[in-house]
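anyone seen this seq b4? input:
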Amino acid sequence: MRWNLMKEMWRKFRSGGAVADVALLKIVALEQRPKSREVLDHLEQVRGYIPEADMPALRKLPDGTFGREYARFLDAQNIDPFVFSDELKERFSDETFAFRFLTTHDHHHVLAGFDAGAAGEAGVLAFNVAQGTFGSKGMLWLAKLLYPLFTPSNVFRLWRNVRVGFAMGKQAKLLLAQRLEDQYERPLVEVRAAYGIPEPASAGVVPSNSSWMINLVYGSRKTPKLAPAS
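predicted toks r here
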Protein backbone atom coordinates (compact mmCIF):
# COMPACT_ATOMS: atom_id res chain seq x y z
CA MET A 1 0.00 0.00 0.00
CA ARG A 2 1.20 3.51 -0.80
CA TRP A 3 0.38 5.34 2.41
CA ASN A 4 1.16 8.79 1.07
CA LEU A 5 -1.50 8.38 -1.62
CA MET A 6 -3.98 6.94 0.86
CA LYS A 7 -3.56 10.04 3.02
CA GLU A 8 -3.96 12.26 -0.02
CA MET A 9 -7.11 10.36 -0.99
CA TRP A 10 -8.57 10.81 2.49
CA ARG A 11 -7.81 14.53 2.50
CA LYS A 12 -9.43 14.96 -0.90
CA PHE A 13 -12.46 13.00 0.23
CA ARG A 14 -12.91 15.05 3.40
CA SER A 15 -12.58 18.32 1.46
CA GLY A 16 -15.29 17.32 -1.02
CA GLY A 17 -12.99 16.58 -3.91
CA ALA A 18 -14.18 15.05 -7.17
CA VAL A 19 -15.46 11.50 -6.74
CA ALA A 20 -13.39 10.30 -9.71
CA ASP A 21 -10.15 11.65 -8.26
CA VAL A 22 -10.86 10.09 -4.86
CA ALA A 23 -11.60 6.71 -6.46
CA LEU A 24 -8.50 6.89 -8.64
CA LEU A 25 -6.23 7.70 -5.71
CA LYS A 26 -7.72 4.81 -3.74
CA ILE A 27 -7.06 2.23 -6.46
CA VAL A 28 -3.53 3.47 -7.07
CA ALA A 29 -2.82 3.66 -3.34
CA LEU A 30 -3.99 0.07 -2.82
CA GLU A 31 -1.96 -0.98 -5.87
CA GLN A 32 -4.95 -2.77 -7.32
CA ARG A 33 -4.18 -4.13 -10.76
CA PRO A 34 -4.56 -7.45 -12.59
CA LYS A 35 -2.00 -10.14 -11.82
CA SER A 36 -2.15 -11.56 -15.34
CA ARG A 37 0.62 -10.37 -17.63
CA GLU A 38 -1.64 -11.10 -20.60
CA VAL A 39 -4.36 -8.78 -19.27
CA LEU A 40 -1.85 -6.01 -18.59
CA ASP A 41 -0.41 -6.37 -22.10
CA HIS A 42 -3.90 -6.02 -23.62
CA LEU A 43 -4.50 -2.87 -21.59
CA GLU A 44 -1.64 -1.21 -23.44
CA GLN A 45 -4.10 -0.83 -26.32
CA VAL A 46 -6.04 1.78 -24.34
CA ARG A 47 -3.19 3.59 -22.58
CA GLY A 48 -4.09 7.28 -22.39
CA TYR A 49 -7.65 6.63 -23.59
CA ILE A 50 -9.74 8.58 -21.05
CA PRO A 51 -12.65 10.18 -22.96
CA GLU A 52 -15.28 12.14 -21.04
CA ALA A 53 -18.95 11.31 -21.57
CA ASP A 54 -21.04 14.10 -23.11
CA MET A 55 -24.27 13.36 -21.24
CA PRO A 56 -26.52 15.83 -23.12
CA ALA A 57 -25.35 14.32 -26.43
CA LEU A 58 -25.84 10.76 -25.19
CA ARG A 59 -29.40 11.56 -24.08
CA LYS A 60 -30.21 12.65 -27.64
CA LEU A 61 -29.12 9.37 -29.20
CA PRO A 62 -31.87 6.99 -30.42
CA ASP A 63 -33.36 4.56 -27.93
CA GLY A 64 -31.60 1.23 -27.99
CA THR A 65 -28.18 2.62 -28.81
CA PHE A 66 -25.39 1.81 -26.39
CA GLY A 67 -24.82 5.46 -25.51
CA ARG A 68 -28.50 6.21 -24.90
CA GLU A 69 -28.92 3.18 -22.64
CA TYR A 70 -25.73 4.07 -20.77
CA ALA A 71 -27.03 7.59 -20.14
CA ARG A 72 -30.39 6.16 -19.07
CA PHE A 73 -28.66 3.85 -16.59
CA LEU A 74 -26.70 6.71 -15.02
CA ASP A 75 -29.75 8.98 -14.85
CA ALA A 76 -31.83 6.25 -13.22
CA GLN A 77 -29.22 5.88 -10.48
CA ASN A 78 -28.70 9.65 -10.14
CA ILE A 79 -24.97 9.26 -10.71
CA ASP A 80 -22.47 11.06 -12.90
CA PRO A 81 -19.82 9.49 -15.16
CA PHE A 82 -16.32 9.71 -13.76
CA VAL A 83 -14.45 12.87 -14.76
CA PHE A 84 -10.83 13.05 -13.64
CA SER A 85 -8.86 16.22 -13.07
CA ASP A 86 -6.20 17.06 -15.66
CA GLU A 87 -3.62 17.06 -12.88
CA LEU A 88 -4.28 13.45 -11.91
CA LYS A 89 -4.61 12.28 -15.53
CA GLU A 90 -1.13 13.57 -16.21
CA ARG A 91 0.33 12.44 -12.91
CA PHE A 92 -0.96 8.86 -13.20
CA SER A 93 -0.81 8.52 -16.96
CA ASP A 94 0.73 5.04 -16.63
CA GLU A 95 -2.12 3.71 -14.45
CA THR A 96 -4.18 2.46 -17.38
CA PHE A 97 -5.97 -0.20 -15.35
CA ALA A 98 -7.19 2.26 -12.73
CA PHE A 99 -8.68 4.62 -15.31
CA ARG A 100 -10.33 1.90 -17.38
CA PHE A 101 -11.63 -0.03 -14.39
CA LEU A 102 -13.38 3.05 -13.01
CA THR A 103 -14.71 4.47 -16.26
CA THR A 104 -16.02 1.17 -17.65
CA HIS A 105 -17.76 -0.16 -14.53
CA ASP A 106 -21.15 1.27 -15.49
CA HIS A 107 -20.61 0.20 -19.09
CA HIS A 108 -20.34 -3.36 -17.78
CA HIS A 109 -23.71 -3.00 -16.10
CA VAL A 110 -25.32 -1.90 -19.36
CA LEU A 111 -23.58 -4.41 -21.62
CA ALA A 112 -24.16 -7.42 -19.37
CA GLY A 113 -27.64 -6.25 -18.32
CA PHE A 114 -27.06 -6.17 -14.57
CA ASP A 115 -28.88 -3.49 -12.59
CA ALA A 116 -27.34 -1.39 -9.82
CA GLY A 117 -28.88 -3.37 -6.97
CA ALA A 118 -27.16 -5.96 -4.80
CA ALA A 119 -27.71 -8.86 -7.20
CA GLY A 120 -26.63 -6.71 -10.15
CA GLU A 121 -23.42 -5.56 -8.47
CA ALA A 122 -22.61 -9.17 -7.60
CA GLY A 123 -23.08 -10.11 -11.25
CA VAL A 124 -20.67 -7.42 -12.42
CA LEU A 125 -18.16 -8.48 -9.76
CA ALA A 126 -18.34 -12.05 -11.05
CA PHE A 127 -17.90 -10.79 -14.62
CA ASN A 128 -14.70 -8.96 -13.63
CA VAL A 129 -13.36 -11.93 -11.67
CA ALA A 130 -13.86 -14.16 -14.71
CA GLN A 131 -12.05 -11.63 -16.91
CA GLY A 132 -9.11 -11.54 -14.51
CA THR A 133 -9.41 -7.80 -13.96
CA PHE A 134 -10.52 -7.65 -10.33
CA GLY A 135 -10.85 -9.88 -7.31
CA SER A 136 -10.78 -13.65 -7.12
CA LYS A 137 -13.06 -16.65 -6.78
CA GLY A 138 -12.49 -16.35 -3.04
CA MET A 139 -13.91 -12.83 -3.15
CA LEU A 140 -16.98 -14.16 -4.95
CA TRP A 141 -17.58 -16.72 -2.23
CA LEU A 142 -17.18 -14.01 0.38
CA ALA A 143 -19.69 -11.82 -1.46
CA LYS A 144 -22.14 -14.71 -1.64
CA LEU A 145 -21.84 -15.11 2.12
CA LEU A 146 -21.82 -11.45 3.21
CA TYR A 147 -24.23 -9.74 0.80
CA PRO A 148 -27.24 -11.73 2.05
CA LEU A 149 -26.60 -10.32 5.53
CA PHE A 150 -27.39 -6.86 4.14
CA THR A 151 -30.14 -7.93 1.76
CA PRO A 152 -31.59 -11.37 2.53
CA SER A 153 -34.37 -10.90 -0.04
CA ASN A 154 -31.72 -10.97 -2.78
CA VAL A 155 -29.86 -14.10 -1.77
CA PHE A 156 -31.06 -16.42 -4.56
CA ARG A 157 -30.99 -13.67 -7.17
CA LEU A 158 -27.46 -12.78 -6.11
CA TRP A 159 -26.24 -16.36 -6.34
CA ARG A 160 -27.81 -16.73 -9.78
CA ASN A 161 -26.23 -13.53 -11.10
CA VAL A 162 -22.82 -14.54 -9.78
CA ARG A 163 -23.04 -17.75 -11.78
CA VAL A 164 -24.34 -15.99 -14.89
CA GLY A 165 -21.88 -13.08 -14.63
CA PHE A 166 -18.91 -15.41 -14.30
CA ALA A 167 -19.96 -17.36 -17.39
CA MET A 168 -20.44 -14.11 -19.33
CA GLY A 169 -17.02 -12.80 -18.32
CA LYS A 170 -15.33 -16.00 -19.44
CA GLN A 171 -17.01 -15.81 -22.84
CA ALA A 172 -16.62 -12.09 -23.55
CA LYS A 173 -13.67 -10.16 -24.92
CA LEU A 174 -11.60 -8.30 -22.34
CA LEU A 175 -13.81 -5.22 -21.91
CA LEU A 176 -11.22 -3.07 -20.15
CA ALA A 177 -9.08 -3.23 -23.29
CA GLN A 178 -11.90 -2.11 -25.60
CA ARG A 179 -12.66 1.46 -26.69
CA LEU A 180 -16.22 1.16 -25.49
CA GLU A 181 -16.89 4.88 -25.67
CA ASP A 182 -16.37 4.76 -29.44
CA GLN A 183 -19.40 2.47 -29.71
CA TYR A 184 -22.04 4.79 -28.23
CA GLU A 185 -23.91 5.37 -31.50
CA ARG A 186 -24.25 1.66 -32.31
CA PRO A 187 -27.29 -0.41 -31.26
CA LEU A 188 -26.67 -2.06 -27.92
CA VAL A 189 -27.48 -5.51 -29.32
CA GLU A 190 -24.73 -5.09 -31.93
CA VAL A 191 -22.17 -3.96 -29.35
CA ARG A 192 -22.95 -6.94 -27.17
CA ALA A 193 -22.55 -9.31 -30.10
CA ALA A 194 -19.25 -7.67 -31.10
CA TYR A 195 -17.80 -8.29 -27.66
CA GLY A 196 -19.19 -11.79 -27.21
CA ILE A 197 -21.81 -10.89 -24.61
CA PRO A 198 -25.16 -12.73 -24.83
CA GLU A 199 -28.48 -10.98 -24.41
CA PRO A 200 -29.12 -10.71 -20.64
CA ALA A 201 -32.56 -12.36 -20.67
CA SER A 202 -31.35 -15.40 -22.60
CA ALA A 203 -28.26 -15.64 -20.37
CA GLY A 204 -30.41 -15.74 -17.24
CA VAL A 205 -29.73 -12.34 -15.66
CA VAL A 206 -32.31 -11.50 -12.99
CA PRO A 207 -33.10 -8.08 -11.45
CA SER A 208 -32.34 -7.21 -7.85
CA ASN A 209 -35.01 -6.85 -5.21
CA SER A 210 -35.18 -3.43 -3.58
CA SER A 211 -33.12 -3.14 -0.40
CA TRP A 212 -33.07 -0.02 1.76
CA MET A 213 -29.97 -1.28 3.57
CA ILE A 214 -27.97 -1.68 0.37
CA ASN A 215 -29.07 1.76 -0.76
CA LEU A 216 -27.84 3.15 2.54
CA VAL A 217 -24.48 1.38 2.22
CA TYR A 218 -23.85 2.38 -1.40
CA GLY A 219 -25.31 5.87 -1.20
CA SER A 220 -25.01 8.19 -4.20
CA ARG A 221 -22.08 8.77 -6.49
CA LYS A 222 -23.36 12.18 -7.49
CA THR A 223 -20.42 14.55 -7.89
CA PRO A 224 -20.41 16.93 -4.90
CA LYS A 225 -20.76 20.63 -5.61
CA LEU A 226 -17.90 22.53 -4.03
CA ALA A 227 -18.57 25.77 -2.25
CA PRO A 228 -17.20 28.80 -4.11
CA ALA A 229 -13.89 30.12 -2.87
CA SER A 230 -14.20 33.10 -0.58
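The first helix runs from residue 3 to 14. The CA atoms of residues 65 and 185 lie 6 Å apart. kinda curious what u guys think
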